[in-house]
Amino acid sequence: MTRSWAEPWKIKMVEPITMTTRDHRERTIVDAGYNTFLLRSEDVYIDLLTDSGTTAMSDRQWSAMLLGDESYAGATSFYKLVDAVHDVYGYEELIPTHQGRGAEHILSQLLIKPGDVVPGNMYFTTTRYHQEAAGGRFVDVIVDEAHDPESIFPFKGNIDLDKLRAVVEDVGSDRVPYVSFETNVNMAGGQPASMANIKDVHAYCRENGIPVMLDATRALENAYFIQQREKGYAGHSIAEIVREIADHSDGATVSSKKDNLVNIGGFLAVRDPDLAMKARAMLVAFEGLHTYGGMAGRDMEALAEGIREMVANDDHVRARVGQVEYLGHQLIDAGVPVIQPIGGHGVFLDAGRILDHLDQDEFPAQALAAAIYVDSGVRGMERGNVSAGRDPETGENRRPKLELVRLTIPRRVYTQSHMDVVSESVGEVFENRRSVQGLKFSYEPDSLRFFQARFSAV
Ligand SMILES: *Cc1c(COP(=O)(O)O)cnc(C)c1O
């Protein structure tokens, strides 16, 4: 008999959440322009909008915050963070930023020249924004399986080396400032790269003099999948695997609001001291002095503790990903089309298939997220045609192959009973899917439009 497992923590403090009526939610979603980003959290029952900064910190992190050294320069909290990043990831040079995009901004501005090409394994919204803002062109070199919602390939986050080679040969290695390698690819549904692929990409880049810059935001979840799925890694600890991932890179940008278990923060970490010097020079202009960047001393304390805690044992990540898989398998059992394998940070509903009566330019994923909210007060988010934006050359919607609703699970916040409520609600909306109508823009921002766009029913 398989035995049940439960969360490896108990609850010390509670935060009440509101339970709303369907009537109320029908009004609030219209007021929010059918955009779940524009709902007030007080109108949400179970908030699966994002796992970014929504983590519950531990008692140790909260107590570490009281030790925050708020000195403007040279704070002890900064040096604790330097040590934690060095011990866990192995990078020598640390540039603290307010969150991941701060690090992406600095890295892109320093390394990308106008006309450069940046190959990466599927785009991430803010990452691509900064690469393009620096004059670069992002080229997707992820394996084809990543774009296929039906594929159950275990490493859909892998870079396709043939595609990478073709890009480098086409434009020349001097036009490729770095390879942007994301761990546990967010937009692909939280899908990992294998260690073998990380090693192969690194070896190829070395030969060609191209740095590998990780987006290591989700390296922990990637490490878990390597441990579970890749031959030879079952006996390795999560800490060892995270370190081995980072060992095959020249640096990383990290949003600490994810794996690192804090509500705000991030960093750029590199090995090259010259690059670090240049990054610090930019840091003072855009974020803050080099020993705090975009964070308070107390934030750096909580982050240093969070980085150590995430790899202190394997139980944390097993429960974190296990909860996501629990929800995913309930939905699969209910017949709801979801991206498989289930990813590390959320369950991705295949809105393109669920609402196949809608054209992609009627934004099925946006409409599905709104319908789930109306049904139960569960808030997810669109990851499809709205998020992908318009092609700058043609001005048309990008119409990505994946048209998804993301139900993202915050770390250490909800219990399995919350997951049961979610799966019942999604199952109900799925049963009545033909009644969900398409949407059209009533306000469309120029960049990163998904955050503030407004819609009305067509
Ligand atoms: C969240 C995220 C980012 C951006 O980080 P912010 O902290 O939100 O600025 C970059 N890459 C990935 C993979 C992310 O998940």
What do you see in this structure?
- With 458 residues, the chain is of the alpha/beta class.
- It has 16 helices and 14 strands.
- The strands form five sheets. Strands 2-8-7-6-5 form a five-stranded mixed sheet, sandwiched between helices.
- α1 packs antiparallel against α14 and α8 crosses α9.
- It is globular, with a radius of gyration of 21 Å.
- The structure holds pyridoxal-5'-phosphate (PLP).
- Pyridoxal-5'-phosphate binds next to α4 and α5.
Outline:
It contains 16 helices and 14 strands. It is α/β, with parallel strands linked by helices and 458 residues long. The chain has two domains: 22-51 and 314-457, Aspartate Aminotransferase, domain 1, CATH 3.90.1150.10; 59-310, Aspartate Aminotransferase, domain 2 (3-Layer(aba) Sandwich).
